[in-house]
């Protein structure tokens, strides 16, 4: 059994991070060993290490939760594994918003049930609470459309092939989303050394 990875468990009380972790664990079972869950764990750990060791001025421009989510999701919808003609341009963005809404609805329903049980005579108040749509902007553990788009953008530019194809675009994205540089470096570090060579042979056959 593999040893626990503290970095992967860095947000134990964040419902969105926990939902994304569970999703990615299952999703990566469809990939070969070169892009399996072990690879994701290592990239997350490396990303946390890079963040922790970064210059304070650069670190102040980064959001660790964004780095964590992007590291978890960077291989979801990888073009190397897509069927011919398939696209994953909004797959990660859609996933994040869906998981976030599901978590918010679950929390809202739990709160409504708790209120009803503690004060069963307040029927109108219960109905009012249940009809209130959850607002992702008011919950720091959820995912706003802006954050979902940002993580989608980061993940779409992590791969080496993306940078080779359009280096100026990636440079521009790093300027606006510095978290990309962290996840990008973490992913490439995992392609080095004995582990990287093993991953190359696994993917190449």
UniProtKB/TrEMBL annotation:
According to the UniProt entry, which residue ranges have a biased composition of type Polar residues? Answer: 133-145
Q: What is the lineage of its organism?
A: Eukaryota, Fungi, Dikarya, Ascomycota, Pezizomycotina
Record domain HD/PDEase: where = 32-201
Task: Name the InterPro entries for this protein.
Answer: HD/PDEase_dom
Recorded source organism is Parathielavia hyrcaniae
**Compositionally biased intervals (Low complexity):** 107-132
Q: Where is this region: Disordered?
A: 107-145
Protein name according to UniProt: HD/PDEase domain-containing protein
